[in-house]
Every structure is written in structure tokens, then in C-alpha cells.
Write a structure and sequence with these properties.
1243 residues; mainly beta; 6-stranded antiparallel beta sheet; 5 helices
């Protein structure tokens, strides 16, 4: 197979490289039972988090503002804000009831494939997991394991070593077919796990190259795909026992050595092959005494031959001996040729050694080849006066080049091209501990480049042939270096023609336990005077590691035997013998044979009678993808195939989703595919996924989402080396970080849809959507949120989107929200920093400020200040372009029709230069005449507080003047007089936060000076005295105050958070007389951006700092002990617990800067106050009842009075009444008015 290179290994390496951008060789025993180590059983279940119980009923509309692209309420204990891993490690994942992903079992590398194993009797054995991992959870588990979803039990399936790429669970044969780059039992790259029997060799010995995909055709046959050219297995070189084990660096000990000078040193017989007796050449035992010669090594090996040179010194010699393997203390069996008879013989505990002086040495071949790191030769009988030896040699078949040169072939052996290594850099030897050999370790510091350290491995290759080259990496748990392990680059040349055998790979060294990776498969030329095969290992340049632990142990070279006759495809009939001389009887084998040399099959899928074959191959009629009918063996060209390689496929019903590196079908009938496409297996047509993505797709994986209804539907994720979804139709290009989701029901990418669905970022490597029990399992490394939304989200019963389109920041940016007290004039914050609901004068406008870009209703770009008009069909507008795009708004306030917006703001409005603050008329939707600029200091505004009684607008920040007025730190703008004024004359410094506690008391937090002498972190201003003073007890504060919040409705108590002088965050409460610490330490890197007291619907235990019916909510990025970061946290006076979590684009941390509400009734609760309408109705009812009682009492008293005065009812005749009235003189009527009322009746 001249020049053949492992294309599948390259594809796998591409997948590893993509993740990085984001982010013992011995044949194992035929183990028939899984290991008994288990992860404790527990079904996949999720623990609900304690309810927040915040009373939101009195607040009206509520919204979160921040720097995030996804947000979740903390509803399950398995939720977190962890970023997805970029060090090559992944997890087995499941979906929480709220749609977020949760890790079930973590691994130290990738999970490549999974399948559900339903056994022949119909019972489910579990889900088989395969990959290149060495651990699952806390268990050592190499390459493959069994997961029981009913109990969450992990059972490692020990017995293979290497990497699993493909699995097929077949109920009909009660088997799991396993393919990859591995050795196990007596198979290479393919094996089966049968029912409860365990590992079982297939009728063929595996393949001479890696397997990457396995499927079952409609005829019941098993189809293997990969990069192989024949069936085969590892084989010994044509000249066995060719590698010499280095005894010269071993630790040699003896028992009963002679005291005779020149014969007592046990090293006399190492590297001595002349067979000559004499002083310095011979080692002897004491007279008439048995003894032993022992060698201990710092590396492991598998010896195949022992060569002993007997001594004849003074008639002495060894007669019988035995070989004990260490550390197992096992006596080994040998075969040998008896020099006296020339016949084959065997021995165990009393092996003979000839005393014939003409026999220079005897060779003893190990019956059982096992791994050892030491041995002892016990001499039990001897010739003459005692035993001894002239020389000893040990040989093996395995070809290794060790990084530690002491373990390579000895220079004294006189070999032409012995194995060796050339290390450069700060290497030190690290003990093997639980590994197979000592290894080199280099501690590297940033910047890490390829020249920081290197090792060049040079093997002793004695015959040309096809080899599998494996790099062995010691686990990181044994030396405690997991946190600092990184990636390495591997290059090399294997043949004299560099164009046919180049090697260029990148790998992770983050494995918990020892592993090996196949780094090359193909032709290697034998060593000669003009050429030596070599492998060079260096750290990968550009890693985001401050310190890196770089390790180097060994590289192994295994000669591969092969039947030939195949080319990436093999059809196996279960239960039938394999006829290696008749491969062409299979249509699949013939199809593979039609591919050009060096082809590779990467993916297989079966739909009905049709099996789809995809990869990197070319024939006279098809290219890179083709279909085969399993019944009649007809080949379908699928429009000639695709014009580039296919990396992955996912079949859902009649839709075959394909990812790779291509742009159109080969016959040009379908163009614009751009690396992602779908083939309709019913209509036999290709269609693009939108317009595809702008780079290679490496994985296509199905998952389910509730996109438009409560019923989950299947959507398709693509991972790869791309950073943009291509524009199509009315959809603009969307920046992404190598991950996108296609929604078939909407014929669009999820990132283009304005839907309230989850946000998922990271890597999905495989999935199973039909696990019994109506569950789905996934593998990968992701960060997820229950709602994908950028910058702002509303809160009612659940999280929702505002009808605004804020663009995610560039995925390359890595920023967190800057503290407002340290906003320099030349930097910006990120995301939505603040917001408010404006309902003044009949408006319904939501205003957002920060540093962001959004899209207006008319399609134009909006920068940093956005207006959402709810009374005008949710029209979205921004401000005019007079404010620079790099401005940031961090504080907003509305007085009447005027918006005051402050921050790190610059611009030129109506010809006037503005800085730190702008005003905007919300009624006319235009800029007012601007207040004079705030300058000096950083020239920024951090907080705005309006005095309700006067309408004066107080601003705080880092500035010195307002126009020409000296006004450091705090200044107020009189809306009545349209001018700046200085509140008091005795304050200086930078202000982070302003807050009114009463109408006359203003608080300012920051790094301040009062009266030019007193430094304080919190000051108060009394408007009646017009003077600043330190707030009571402010000397107890640990550092500048960043955020303030009132603790009671009357403002007598308050909360303060800030940054202590040692750089840590603090939280304290003033109870009216003293400051108290929160009682819980906040972890390093905590950034508190907001504080707010909320009333509760359910009380908690009363504490000294928080009333039982209240809770304090902190926003920002708060680091909690045992949890990690949370963007919003609830504090009940005793414990902090997460409330809201965020994710962000570019695998960066999210944060919440502000919770803003329509009403500020934080100290009113639904349990203590009826709605106003009911209060009015009840009051009205009481009033009416009292009036009725008064009227009835009056009527009763009047009736009583009249009865006592002899009142007689007047005639009721209308005629009499009329005549009577006519007879009464008018003066009498008037006269009666002047008479006094009679006295009150007496009872």
C-alpha cells in the first residue's frame, strides 16, 4: 500500500483540532466479563432547586439587562454557568425538563459514538459508549463502556486498548460490533461484544487500518467502513526478536555473589557478547551456593527471547535455572533447542544450560509473552564449584522509541541504527508511578511556541512495510498535572519520499489515565545510512495556557499484516466464515474496490433497502457519496456525488443530512450547498441548508427541541471549522463559533428565527434520540440556556424575549462587564447595561442602554441606546448618529419628557461637543440642547438619581467639571433653570453609585474625600444643609462602594457592595446604627453589579440581616462556594443560592448587570396589600352602610318626637290639600321659620 495514509485518522484529527480551536500497546487478555467497578446506581433524575418565592406582583413589567446570549432561571440543581470544554474532554449529556443540557458522566476525552444495546431476549443491556477516553466519571475506562440509563450505572468494558470510532448494536445477533483504532483479544480495529459472553473475536482478525463507521444493510449483513485495504492483524517482523532490551541502565542486584576480585560485579555480564571468561567478563556465585541475578527497570516491555552465555571459568557453570517475571513473581515457560540433541524442548522451573564450551550461548523463547518491568534468574544447580554467567541478553518484537534514552536500545549492542530520542528543552525525568514507564516532563510558560521544547523519536525499523504508529501518553492524574496539560503537535517523515508519508497531527494530553493514539498508518521505509524514520513532538503554539505541562514517553511501531483486496468497505455475513480469496462476491466489496487508492469511508447510513456510503473517495462514476441497494446490489450515484469530502451523516426518516467540505453536486444540478446539505431519500433530490456555512462541517448530530409547540421535533446540529452561517433569502449572515442548528420544519437556521427557544453552544459529537423510556442521550461539551436571547429578557411566569433584535457581539471578543467605577475613557462595557420602562405622559417605551448593536424596525443599525415603543406596534428606534459608536451607556433616568443617559459617552450633537451625558426628548424623538459636557477624571457618568420633589437630576461619576463649573464627582442639573449646579462644596473623588434614601438625603458610594481631608467610601448629602459628610460608620466598609440598595421602605437601612482593598468583593448592611457583614464570604472574581430587596411570597427563617419576608438579590457575576458563577443570586441572610444563570457567545462568561421594573414597589407584597380597586370598593361599602344607619336612626327619632307631640297625619285627599294650602296666609308660613325648634324628645 505505497504512500497510503490513514485518511480516517486525519479526519479524526480534524475533529480534535476543531475542538481545540474552541477548545499499553500489549494485546489485552480475552476478557469475557465486564469489570466490576461501577459508578453508584441512580436513575437519570434531576433535583429541583428551591423555589425563589420572589413576589413580583407589585412590580409590573420586569426585565434582566446584561451581557449574555442565553439566560435561564435556576430551576434544577444540575444547572450551571460552566463554559464548554476546549481541552478535548466531553460528557454524556441529558436534557433537563426546562430544555437545558446537564452532564451525566464526564470523560477525559471524546465520545465518538453510542448505540442502545437491546439483547436477543428483548431486554435492554444499556447504552454502549465508545470514544478515545480513558475514564468515565471517576472510573478508569478505556475506549468503551456500558451505561444503564435506568440506574445511571457505568460499567467499563475492559479488554481493548486504543480508540473506538463506531458501534452497531444488533439485536438479531445479540451483539455489539465495535470498530476503531485499537487492539483487543486477538483482533485489531474490529471486534464484537456478544450478549453476556463479553469480547469475542470476529471470524476475521480485524482490519489493517481503522474502522470509522458500521451499519446494517437491509439484507442483514454488517457493513464496515474505514481506511483499510484488507483484513489483518498486527504481525511480528519477518526477523523476530529483533529489538534488544537495554539492560545496561537497569538496577542490577544479586544474591550469593562471589567475593573473588573481578568476578563479583553483576554488571560484568551486561553488554558482553564475546562469551569470553575472565576477570571483568564473568559473574560468579559463591562456592557451592545457589543464588540469583536480578534486573529492575523503569520501563515496561514484553520480552520474547532470553539469551544466556554460560561461563566455564575454572570449570564452573550454571546447570539449571529459572526465570521469574516481575512484578507478578511468575515463573516463565520456555522453548529451546537442546544443543546436545538438536531437538525442540521446553522447560519451566529447572531450565538446563549446556556446559559444552563450543556452545557460545543458548536462546530460550518465551511461551507466554507478557508485560514485565523486571526479572530474576535463579541458579539452582551448577557445574564444578559454583554457578555463574558470561553474558545475558533479552529481546522483544515490539519496536519502541522512548523519550528517556536510557530505555532505548543500548549503544553497546553494536547496532547500525538503534532506537533513540533527541529531547531539547527543560526536560526532567518523571517517575512512572502508575504508568508503564518513566517519562519526560517539561514545565513551559507563556508564550508557548513549538520551540519551547521538543522530542525527536527515531525507531529501529529493520524492514519496510505498512506500520501502525502509536503515541503513548501517561495519564495526568498520577502526577497531578491535569489542569496544566494541553495540546501537542506531531510531525514526521516515514519514507524517503516525503510527499508520500507526511505526518502532521495535533493531540490533547489531558487524558486521566495512560492512553495511546494512532498518529500514522501506512508505509514506513527501513532505516539506512541515508534515511531514518522520525517523529517530532512539540507543544502546539498559541494555546491559551499560562503554564503548560508537556510530557513525552514513547512511540510504538507495529508491523501490520494484511490480506489485501479491500478498499474502505467490507461486507460481513454474521455466522458465516470469511473467504479471503473471494472478496469480489460482495457488491459492497466491489464498490470499495472501484474507489481510487488511498480512499477512505467516513460514514455509513441505511434507509430501507438503501445503504449510503460517504467519505473521501473517487471512482469513475461517483465521488465522496454513493448509495447501494442491499437487495439487488444496484449503485445510485446521487447526482454524481459531491465535489468534496463528506465527514458525517445523520439520517432522520427520509432526510439524510450531510456535512463536510463541498459546495455542489458533481453534475452541477444542485449548487450552493456550502458544506451542509440534505438528501431526500424518497424524492432522490439534494437541497442546501439555507446557503450552508463558511467552513468545513465535521459532525452532523440530531437533537430534539420544542421549536413552535410543546411537542419536541427533531432538529440538526452541525459542528465544524466555520464561523458564519451564510446569508440567504432575507436572512443576513450570522456569526457563530463552529456550531449551528438547522430547523427542518422552518427551513431555516435556528439562529435566524425569532423564537423563544433554548440557546446551545459548543460541541455535540453524537446522540441517541430513541433510548427506551422516551429519553434522549447526547455526547459532547456544551453550554446551554433555556432561552436564547441577547442582552435583555423579560420575566413574568417565565423568561421571555423583548421584540428587539440585539446582535451577539463578535465571537472572538473575550470581555466581561467592566466595573462602573473603573470605566476609563478609552474602554467600553459590553451588552445591555441598564434599562427602564417609561410610562410618563402616556408613553409605553422601553429604553435600553449599554454597548451593543441592534436592528431598527426600518432595518438600520442601532448603537448603544434603543427605544421600544409599545404603543406604536413595538417600533424599535435608536438615536441619531451624533453619538460615537464606541460609546457606552450605563445610567438612564427620565424626567418629564427628557431622557438623561450617561456613561462613557462622546459625540457631537447639533454642533455641540458632548461628553459623559446626553439628553434626549422622548416626545419629539430628538436631541435637546445639551447640557455642558462633564470632563476631567475619566470623563464618565456611573449613576443618575433624580430628586422627585424638585426634578433636579443628580449625576455621579469620574469627572471634575461641568462645563466651566468645578463639580467633582457629583453634579446636579436643574431642569427648571437648565444649568449645572454643585451640591455642596466639600466632596471630591470618583462616584460609582448614587441613591436617595429620603427626599433630602442623597448617598454617594465610591472612592471619595470629604472636606479635602477625610477619605470615605460612602458619603451623604443633606440638601437642607447643602453639605457632604461621611455616612455613619462608613469607616467599617472594606473598600469603595460600587452598588447601593435601600434595606427598608423608609431608607433607614441600606445594603452596600463593593471591592475591598485586597481586591475581593464584599457585601454589608447598615441596620440603622451599625454595619454588618453578610456573614458569607464571596469567592474571588465575584463582580457585584446590582442589589435589590424583594418581598417574598413565602417566608424564610428570620436572620439578623434579612427580614423573614424579604430576600436580597445580587446581580453581576457572583462566584458561589461549591457551585461556581451565577449571574443573579438570592441571599436570605444565611445562604446564597443561584437565581438566574447566563451564557455568552464565544464561550465567554455572561453576566446580568441590572434588574429593572415598571414599578418600584419592592417593599409591598401581594400577601399584605389588596389591589387598589378592592380597597376602594370596600371603603365605599363601609361608607354607604354608615350613611344608611344614620338615616334610619334619624327617621326613628323623628317618628318618636312626633308621636309625643300629638302629631296627626294630614288628610291625604289632594283636593283638601290644595284647598288647605290656599287658606294659609303666606306670612304665617314665613313666620314659622323664625320660631325655635322644640327640644329634643325625652325618653
Amino acid at each position: 500500500m505505497p504512500g497510503c495514509q490513514n485518511l480516517v485518522a486525519i479526519a479524526f484529527e480534524n475533529w480534535q483540532s476543531f475542538i481545540a480551536h474552541h477548545f499499553a500497546h500489549a494485546s489485552g487478555p480475552d476478557i469475557r466479563r465486564p469489570t466490576t467497578n461501577l459508578i453508584p446506581a441512580a436513575a437519570i433524575s434531576f433535583n429541583p432547586a428551591p423555589a425563589a418565592n420572589l413576589d413580583l406582583s407589585q412590580l409590573g413589567r420586569i426585565a434582566f439587562a446584561g451581557d449574555f446570549s442565553g439566560i435561564s432561571l435556576y430551576q434544577y440543581e444540575e444547572q450551571n454557568e460552566q463554559l464548554y470544554s476546549t481541552n478535548g474532554s466531553e460528557s454524556l449529556l441529558a436534557r433537563l425538563p426546562n430544555g437545558a443540557f446537564a452532564s451525566i458522566v464526564a470523560t477525559d476525552a471524546m465520545i465518538q459514538t453510542m448505540c442502545t444495546f437491546i439483547m436477543g431476549n428483548g431486554s435492554m443491556a444499556g447504552v454502549v459508549i465508545g470514544g478515545n477516553f480513558t475514564s468515565l466519571g471517576q472510573l478508569e475506562s478505556t475506549a468503551v463502556a456500558l451505561f444503564n440509563p435506568n440506574t445511571s450505572t457505568i460499567t467499563p468494558l475492559s479488554g481493548i486498548s486504543g480508540q473506538v470510532n463506531a458501534l452497531l448494536c444488533d439485536q438479531d445477533t445479540n451483539s455489539v460490533y465495535v470498530g476503531g483504532n485499537f487492539v483487543g483479544a486477538n483482533s485489531t480495529n474490529a471486534i464484537a461484544w456478544v450478549g453476556t459472553q463479553g469480547w469475542t473475536n470476529l471470524p476475521f482478525a480485524g482490519f489493517n487500518g481503522p474502522v470509522t463507521s458500521i451499519t446494517k444493510a437491509s439484507n442483514g449483513h454488517i457493513i464496515f467502513g474505514g481506511s483499510f485495504t484488507g483484513l489483518g492483524n498486527a504481525s511480528a517482523p519477518s526477523t523476530p526478536d529483533g529489538q534488544i532490551i537495554n539492560l545496561s541502565t537497569a538496577t542490577i542486584t544479586t544474591s550469593s555473589s562471589t567475593t573473588a576480585q573481578g568476578f563479583s560485579d553483576p554488571k560484568n555480564i551486561v553488554c558482553k557478547t564475546s562469551g569470553a571468561d575472565g576477570s571483568g567478563n564473568t559473574w560468579l556465585l559463591e562456592d557451592n551456593t545457589p543464588g540469583f541475578w536480578q534486573a529492575d527497570f523503569k520501563f515496561g516491555f514484553q520480552p520474547t527471547k532470553l539469551r544466556l552465555y554460560n561461563t566455564h571459568q575454572d570449570g564452573r557453570g550454571t546447570k539449571t535455572w529459572r526465570f521469574t517475571a516481575l512484578p507478578i513473581n511468575g515463573i516463565m515457560n520456555f522453548t529451546y533447542i537442546d544443543p546436545a540433541t538438536g531437538q525442540n524442548a521446553s522447560c519451566t522451573s529447572e531450565c538446563p544450560l549446556s556446559n559444552n564450551a563450543s556452545v557460545k550461548f543458548q536462546d530460550f523463547h518465551f511461551v507466554n509473552v507478557i508485560g514485565i518491568n523486571g526479572f530474576r534468574v535463579d541458579i539452582s544447580q551448577f557445574y564444578g564449584s559454583g554457578g555463574g554467567l558470561d553474558a545475558i541478553e533479552l529481546f522483544e518484537d515490539d519496536i519502541f522509541s522512548f523519550a528517556v534514552n536510557d530505555f532505548n536500545e543500548p549503544t553497546c549492542a553494536g547496532l547500525g541504527f538503534p532506537s533513540s530520542a533527541t529531547p531539547t528543552g527543560p526536560w526532567v525525568v518523571t517517575p512512572s508511578r502508575s504508568s508503564t514507564a518513566d517519562y519526560l516532563t517539561a514545565q513551559l510558560s507563556d508564550p508557548i511556541t513549538e520551540s519551547s521544547a521538543s522530542v525527536v523519536f527515531t525507531p529501529d525499523i529493520r524492514e519496510s512495510g505498512n506500520y501502525s504508529v502509536n503515541l503513548y501518553t501517561p495519564g495526568c492524574l498520577q502526577d497531578g498535572s491535569c489542569a496544566s496539560r494541553g495540546q501537542i503537535s506531531i510531525t514526521g517523515q516515514m519514507t524517503t519520499d516525503p510527499t508520500k508519508s507526511s505526518l502532521d497531527r495535533t493531540l490533547f494530553q489531558t487524558n486521566n489515565y495512560d492512553k495511546y493514539d494512532q498518529i500514522y498508518f501506512g508505509l514506513i521505509d527501513a532505516s539506512s545510512g541515508s534515511f531514518r524514520p522520525r517523529v517530532t513532538m512539540t507543544p502546539l503554539a498559541g494555546q491559551s495556557l499560562t503554564n503548560m505541562t508537556f510530557v513525552a514517553q514513547r512511540v510504538g511501531f507495529t508491523l501490520i499484516n494484511s490480506t489485501g483486496g479491500l478498499n474502505g468497505l467490507f461486507e460481513y455475513t454474521p455466522g458465516s466464515a470469511v473467504n479471503t480469496s473471494d472478496f469480489k462476491s460482495s457488491a459492497f466489496n466491489r464498490l470499495g474496490a472501484s474507489f481510487d487508492a488511498g480512499s477512505a469511508v467516513t460514514s455509513l447510513a441505511t434507509s430501507g433497502d438503501t445503504t449510503f456510503v460517504a467519505g473521501n473517495f473517487t471512482s469513475s462514476t461517483v465521488r465522496n457519496i454513493v448509495a447501494m441497494n442491499g437487495n439487488d446490489a444496484t449503485v445510485q450515484s446521487l447526482d454524481g456525488g459531491l465535489n468534496g469530502e463528506v465527514e458525517s451523516m445523520f439520517l432522520n426518516a427520509t432526510s439524510l443530512f450531510v456535512g463536510g467540505r463541498f459546495s455542489k453536486t458533481l453534475d452541477n444540478t444542485t449548487e450552493g450547498l456550502n458544506n451542509a446539505a440534505v438528501y431526500d431519500t424518497r424524492k432522490n433530490t439534494w437541497s442546501p441548508l439555507g446557503a450552508g456555512v463558511n467552513g468545513r462541517v465535521l459532525r452532523v448530530v440530531g437533537l430534539t427541541m420544542n421549536v413552535t409547540s410543546s411537542t419536541p421535533e427533531v432538529v440538526v446540529s452541525v459542528n465544524g471549522e466555520f464561523n458564519s452561517i451564510e446569508a440567504f433569502g432575507n436572512n443576513s449572515a450570522v456569526a457563530v463559533d463552529g456550531f449551528a442548528i438547522w430547523v427542518p420544519s422552518q427551513a431555516n437556521w435556528l439562529q435566524n428565527l425569532d423564537l423563544s427557544v433554548e440557546r446551545i453552544d459548543g460541541i455535540l459529537s453524537t446522540s441517541i434520540l430513541d433510548v427506551p423510556g422516551d429519553n434522549s442521550l447526547y455526547a459532547g461539551s456544551v453550554s446551554s440556556s433555556t432561552l436564547g436571547v441577547t442582552g435583555v429578557a423579560t420575566l413574568s411566569d417565565d423568561l421571555n424575549r423583548l421584540p428587539v433584535n440585539i446582535q451577539s457581539p463578535s465571537i472572538s471578543r473575550s470581555s466581561n462587564l467592566a466595573k462602573r467605577d473603573t470605566i476609563p475613557s478609552n474602554t467600553t462595557t459590553a451588552g445591555v447595561v441598564t434599562g427602564l420602562f417609561d410610562t410618563n405622559n402616556g408613553r409605553n417605551v422601553t429604553i435600553l442602554g449599554g454597548h451593543f448593536t441592534a436592528t431598527a424596525t426600518n432595518g438600520s443599525a442601532i448603537h448603544n441606546l434603543l427605544f421600544l415603543d409599545g404603543s406604536n406596534n413595538d417600533q424599535v428606534t435608536g438615536i441619531e448618529t451624533q453619538v460615537t459608536q464606541d460609546s457606552s451607556f450605563v445610567a438612564l433616568a427620565v424626567h418629564g419628557d427628557v431622557l438623561f443617559a450617561g456613561g462613557n459617552v462622546t459625540g457631537d450633537i447639533n454642533g455641540a461637543r458632548v461628553n459623559a451625558l446626553v439628553t434626549y426628548n422622548l416626545a419629539s424623538k430628538s436631541f435637546n440642547a445639551q447640557p455642558p459636557s462633564l470632563t476631567g477624571g475619566n470623563g464618565t457618568v456611573s449613576s443618575i438619581a433624580i430628586r422627585t420633589s424638585t426634578g433636579d437630576v443628580y449625576v455621579g461619576g469620574s469627572f471634575k467639571t461641568a462645563g466651566s463649573l468645578g463639580c467633582p464627582g457629583v453634579c446636579f442639573f436643574s431642569t427648571a433653570n437648565s444649568q449645572w449646579n454643585q451640591p455642596g462644596q466639600n466632596l471630591d473623588g470618583a462616584v460609582n453609585s448614587l441613591m436617595w434614601t429620603t427626599d433630602t438625603i442623597l448617598l454617594a458610594g465610591g472612592n471619595l474625600t470629604v472636606n479635602d481631608t477625610s477619605s470615605t467610601f460612602l458619603a451623604q448629602y443633606d440638601t437642607s444643609k447643602q453639605v457632604w459628610d461621611s455616612y455613619p460608620g462608613s469607616s467599617q466598609l472594606l473598600g469603595p462602594v460600587d452598588v447601593l440598595a435601600v434595606g427598608t421602605s423608609d431608607g433607614s437601612q441600606l445594603w452596600a457592595a463593593g471591592t475591598a482593598l485586597n481586591g475581593s468583593a464584599y457585601l454589608m448592611k447598615y441596620d440603622g446604627s451599625n454595619w454588618q457583614s453578610a456573614g458569607q464570604s464571596l469567592q474571588p472574581d465575584t463582580d457585584i453589579r446590582g442589589l435589590q430587596i424583594f418581598s417574598l411570597t413565602s417566608s424564610h427563617g428570620s436572620t439578623a440581616t434579612v427580614d423573614s419576608n424579604q430576600a436580597l438579590v445580587l446581580t453581576g457575576s457572583i462566584v458561589l462556594v461549591g457551585f461556581g458563577t451565577a449571574s443573579a443570586v438570592i441571599f436570605d441572610g444565611t445562604d446564597f443560592r443561584p437565581y438566574a444563570l447566563t451564557t455568552n457567545s464565544g464561550n465567554t462568561a455572561g453576566s446580568i448587570s441590572h434588574i429593572f421594573t415598571e414599578r418600584n414597589n419592592f417593599f409591598s407584597s401581594s400577601s399584605s396589600q389588596l389591589p387598589l380597586v378592592f380597597v376602594v370598593l370596600i371603603g365605599l361599602g363601609i361608607s354607604l352602610a354608615l350613611m344608611l344607619l344614620i338615616v334610619l336612626a334619624g327617621l326613628f327619632l323623628d317618628r318618636l318626637r312626633k308621636r309625643r307631640e300629638g302629631y296627626v297625619p294630614a288628610p291625604t285627599s289632594m283636593i283638601d290639600r290644595g284647598s288647605g294650602m290656599q287658606r294659609i296666609p303666606p306670612q304665617e308660613l314665613l313666620q314659622s321659620l323664625s320660631k325655635g325648634r322644640p327640644g329634643a324628645p325625652h325618653v
